[in-house]
Design a protein that fits this description.
Largest sheet: 5 strands, antiparallel
Number of helices: 3
Distance between the termini: 26 Å
Order of helices and strands: HEEEHHEE
Shape: globular
Radius of gyration: 13 Å
Number of strands: 5
Helix content: 10-25%
Strand order of the largest sheet: 1-2-3-5-4
Oligomer: single chain
Length: 115
């Protein structure tokens, strides 16, 4: 997929609107349009990476996204009750937007095992 056609690249550059919670020069966090939990926020790097396999060697992108995911959980009041971070890599794992992202889920009891 070309970066020009990437949904999350368009959100990161504000071509497509989203409800942003946090943003800095490397990453942004916005509410999922189809929430799977009371809190469901997506955190993405602004630099395009297809999936975590692609992003893993970009230490700056990975650290910024993971730090922002933690900050979202704190801002949403999930620090004490708990939260889950989910990354899907590849279509068989459920990845539907091929721009690496982390789901921050919380606000209810989350079952285990997932999937």
């Amino acid at each position: 997929m070309s970066h020009d056609n990437c949904l999350f690249c368009k959100i990161a550059t504000k071509v497509i609107p989203a409800t942003f919670l946090l943003e800095d020069e490397h990453a942004c966090a916005f509410r999922d349009l189809n929430p799977m939990a009371p809190t469901h926020v997506l955190v993405i790097p602004k630099k395009h990476h297809v999936n975590i396999d692609d992003a893993a060697d970009d230490a700056l992108a990975v650290s910024c996204v993971m730090r922002m995911a933690r900050d979202v959980a704190r801002a949403e009041g999930l620090k004490d009750s708990g939260y889950r971070l989910v990354m899907n890599s590849g279509s068989d794992a459920g990845q539907s937007v091929f721009h690496w992202h982390v789901h921050v889920l919380g606000g209810r009891q989350l079952g285990w095992p997932p999937g």
